Amino acid sequence: MRKIRRSTLAVMVSACLLSMSVMEPALAQSATGAIAGRAASGTEVTISNPATGFSRTVTAGADGTYRLSQLPVGDYQLEASGRKFDVSVSLGGTTTVNLAGGTAGALDSVQVIGTRIVNRVDVRSTESATNITRDELARLPVDQSMGAVALLAPGVIGGNSSFGGISFGGSSVAENSVFINGLNVTDFYRRQSFSTAPFAFFKEFQVKTGGYSVEFGRSTGGVINAVTRSGSNEFHGGVELTIEPEQWKSSADDHYYADGTPNTLSSQDSSRFLKTNVWGSGPIIRDRLFIFAMYEDRDSTSRYTTGSFGNSLNKGSSDNGFWGTKLDWKLTDNHLLEFLAFSDEGDITTKTYGYDFASKEVKTMTGQRTVESGGKNASLTYTGYFGDNFVAKAMYGVNRSQSLSRSPADAACDLVGINTATYGTQYNNMGRPTLGCHPGGSVVDHEDERKVARLDFEWTLGDHLLRFGMDREVMTTDRTSRYPGPTGMLYTIYGTTPGATLDNGATVPAGVNAFVMGRRRIDGGVFETTANAWYIEDNWSITPNLLLNLGVRVDSFNNKTAAGTSFIKIDNLVSPRLGFSWDIKGDGASKLFGNLGRYYLPVTNNINYTFAGGLTDERTFYALNGFSNETNPITGAAYMMPILGNQIGPVDDQFNVSVGDLRKSVDRDLEAVYQDEAILGYQSMINQAWSWGVNATYRRMKNALDDVRINHTPCGPTSTLWPIANPGRPLTIWGTTSMGCAQDGWITIDTSQDGYRKGGSGQVIGYYEPKRTYKSVEFQIDRAWDGKWAFNASYLWSKSDGNHEGPVNSDTNYGDTGMVQHWDHPANNERYGPLFNDRRHQIKLRGSYAITDHWSIGGSLRAASGGPITAFGVTWPNDTTAAASFVSTGSGGGSGWLCVANCAGPYTGRVYEYTPRGAFGRMPWTYDVGANISWSTKIGNSDFKARFSVFNLLNSQEVINVSARYEGQPGVKRSTFGTGTRWQSPRYAQMVLSWNF
Q1: Percentage of the chain modeled with pLDDT above 70
Q2: What Gene Ontology terms describe what this protein does at the molecular function level (predicted)?
């Protein structure tokens, strides 16, 4: 066995050294915890970690208080006056150990589970957070992703499934931050994803849902804070196998429109997943230098049909490997160094075939595409303990990600598709032939790199714990994207009727019953954004039982052009935070706590990329003159191409973004998006195992930052401009004589009164004040694991309403962060009411139970009421300019006004009906039940465990997204309104086999 251990370790050391040679060193803020309490004045309190030899000693002050801070997460022994106690230190928390009546040899009132002191009520915390350890996750049916862990916390829900992500406390999916060992791994291009690692790589997770410290910023949603595993003085290793065969997955339901036309055919979709994880850990130098290293091989395949008629079949395959390593070096007893490196690089190759859904006949391959993602990441952390009262940290870090998309057909083949809602029946009658020879997707080259540097200090001065520091992030995006093919256009075929109006204002000619929209979209460049911040915080123990947290954070953001000049620069964003925690009885068993704070959101790099690099986004409309038979130049397969007839109207170039004069592209006095938050809560132990709590949260976002349609200024009417602005507030841009100004110079537009001129009537109006509020009350009860069973239950009532969701628009599935349709037209944001992420009721249960020494079971339930169904029309009163696309349901935001009479005539005679947000009811409740059963045994000095988990046990497939576009043309209801676009994933099962020694 020792030979096996040493061989495994040798492999892992080699992997670590290799990673160090190919990575730039990175330094990151480490994720730690603390121990604090009271003892007799002058008592020496020592904590030690037997697994690593790490120890620290402090002396209780004249007031009897002591604190041991910045401790690596783990299990310790606390010793005072010859007595020893086992103590657990959790991520981001402070474990309270009060020694009885000032006598160091005995415990006062503590929280003991089994024989270990744990942190049931953290009376030194003023935030709302949920901690979940690796051991707890091993007992529960939780999918192996950081997002799935976050969903265990109250108030966290899945976002719009069209572009993924999670929503914290009513925020959009683009407002969160994710840290691994203190390294910020959040996607900074759109803020909707993050770098990640296997479950087996992590030791503990902390999900912060509100009230977090000034140390954390650049988020108006929530924070996922994770810490990885580390080595120790003992050699350990293991192998873990995760199996998800396709036979253990239920079929997804097929869905049809009311007329029998297919909506989504997915019953023949399938996938399988297999991953093998090998890890090893141990000392390189006993008590000094430790290593943990892991390699994981991932093999997956998928099979899914596309096109509403299932006429194409995609077969995806991926065989990727994750590697990661953690080095811990105790330079001396008071100076520590940590190195983390991991790679989540991966790719998937998808081959597309013609397919007959009814007969399940796979036809000739029509294309192939490879998508690469992920990147290399690293962090290096120095921690220095200077005496009893001062701790310093230094950090520098690198986080990389990429998104590359390639196909052999990129040069030769254009993209072709159909709009099933308007042309589905005709296409079905044609026999559903293959259209175009490209398998789908744009040609994308995208690489992001974040470099991070930070300093953090902690200084204890009597009743005051001062924490202060600074950080700097340099975020660089190198991206180009375009549609493939010789014309570089995406061709979409629509059914229509003569006399209908197109987005370019043209009328469909007589005899034309179908048209083709060709969209050309090209962009590219290299762009950099810097984000700097400093913070200071005083945790003041006003009395032994009352803690006041006083903090301030100051952020600055500088988004730059490709030439390196400032495009958007916002300085001195002051975020005050005020919190308190009252240990009501002075025994650490209950607390009343509260928090007031402001949180700022940075400007994403996709705005630099689009506005400081230029964007070509044009639509050209053609009559459809039938189809031609063609041969795929890559595969030799037959396909059909639409024959373009006469062009209908001019090229619609209203969405182009020019970089000729950036002073017209951004508000000179632009303000960053911020959110104010208030939390009040109570938490208490019932006994040593049980605790409960209740808290109320209020969040308010009163401003927005987005591109805004401006076609009128104090100088008069102008061609459409799209500056980045704070809608509803004064906007200052460069005015020119070509815009009707008497001379060139700065002009200010009060966008609450001016900025938009209605078509036809010429009436000048402004935009409505942006507003988003979130209110919630949360109840939670928890029983800690005592070797036999554990349980947690929460109920949350919440209300999220306003007139904009945030920097994305889930209503219309538009996820281009900071450039959505909320402010493309005043009608888009006229209505205040329930927002997309409004789920009034949420219930979450999880529990585990050890039946015997070998067998255990676990279960979970997530239930939530459905989101609102809101109707979006295409026009509103007294205006000829459309509030949304007449052609596409995803383009343009839409109006709350629905035309009910005289809709085909002049705009002056149209009769409208106003519909509030949520006027068409709500989607159904969703229920997700999980269950698992585990068996474990010892084999010599090793442990073997098998865990079988079932997710969505009841196979619930309720709708979770619906089509919100009510109209196509004014007064013409779309048959797709209110029909599903996404549903819950069907039931699937997973087996995890692990052998650890």
Answers
A1: 95
A2: carbohydrate binding; siderophore uptake transmembrane transporter activity
Structure tokens at 251: 């079929």
CA dihedral 11→17→21→27, nearest 10 degrees, is: 130
Amino acid code (one letter) for 367: G
| Residue 961 in tokens | 């997204």
Residues 447 and 525 sit within 8 Å (Cβ to Cβ) = no
The answer to whether the beta carbons of residues 253 and 707 sit under 8 Å apart is: no
- Indicate the pLDDT class of residue 118, thresholds 50, 70 and 90: confident
DSSP string for 276-328: EEEEEEEEEETTTEEEEEEEEEEEEEEEEEESTT--EEEEEEEEEEEEEEEEE
Query: Within 13 A of 673's CA, how many CA atoms are on the CB side?
Result: 29
The C-alpha atoms of residue 665 and residue 658 are separated, in whole angstroms, by: 8
- Give the chain's mean pLDDT: 91
Task: Quote the CA–CA distance of 636 and 652 in Å, as a whole number.
Answer: 35
* Residues 6 or more apart in contact with residue 33 via CB below 8 angstroms: 71, 73, 89, 90, 91, 92, 93, 94, 95
Farthest-apart Cα atoms in the chain, separation: 97
Rg (alpha carbons) of the chain, rounded to whole number: 30
Q: Label the pairing between strands 223-228 and 177-180.
A: parallel
Distance CA 506, CA 850 (A): 70
Please give the angle made by the CA atoms of 792, 794 and 798, to the nearest 5 degrees: 160
- Per-residue pLDDT at 85: 84
**Dihedral over alpha carbons 104, 107, 109, 115 (to 10 degrees):** 150
How far apart CA 83 and CA 81 sit, in angstroms, is 6
Residue 511's region, left for phi above 0, alpha for psi from -120 to 50, else beta, is left
Query: Where does the pLDDT of residue 865 fall: very low under 50, low under 70, confident under 90, or very high at 90 and above?
Result: very high
How many other C-beta atoms lie within 10 A of the C-beta of residue 883?
Answer: 24
Burial class (CB in 10 A: 0-12, 13-18, 19+), 293: buried
- Distance in angstroms (rounded) separating the CA atoms of residues 229 and 730: 51
Q: Span 563-590, mean pLDDT?
A: 93
User: Using the 8-state DSSP alphabet, how is residue 50 labeled?
Assistant: T
Q: What token pair was written down for 482?
A: 């375009």
Tokens of 32: 């730690």
Q: Are 209 and 366 in contact (CB under 8 A)?
A: no
Q: pLDDT band for 520, please (50, 70, 90 cuts).
A: very high
Q: Which of 445, 444, 440, 443 is nearest to 415 (CA)?
A: 440
Q: Return the closest-CA partner of residue 729 out of 706, 745, 711, 697.
A: 706
> What pLDDT is recorded for position 1?
37
Our CA dihedral for 133, 138, 141, 144, rounded to 10 degrees, sits at 80
- What's the pTM? 0.90
Domain boundaries of the chain, sorted by first residue: 232-614+660-708+766-996, 710-765
Q: Which residue has the higher pLDDT, 659 or 656?
A: 656
pLDDT tops 90 at residue 822:
no
Q: How many CA atoms lie within 13 A of 286 on its CB side?
A: 4
Q: How many residues does the chain have?
A: 997
How does residue 164 score in pLDDT terms, banded at 50, 70 and 90?
A: confident
Three state DSSP letters for 627-652: EEEEECCCCCCEEEEEEEEEECCCCE
User: Per-residue pLDDT averaged across 537-547, rounded?
Assistant: 95
Residue 706 near residue 819, CB atoms below 8 Å:
yes
CB neighbour class for 571 (10 Å; exposed up to 12, middle 13-18, buried from 19):
exposed
The fourth-level CATH superfamily of domain 232-614+660-708+766-996 is TonB-dependent receptor, beta-barrel domain (2.40.170.20)
Helix or strand (DSSP H, E) at 14: helix 2-22
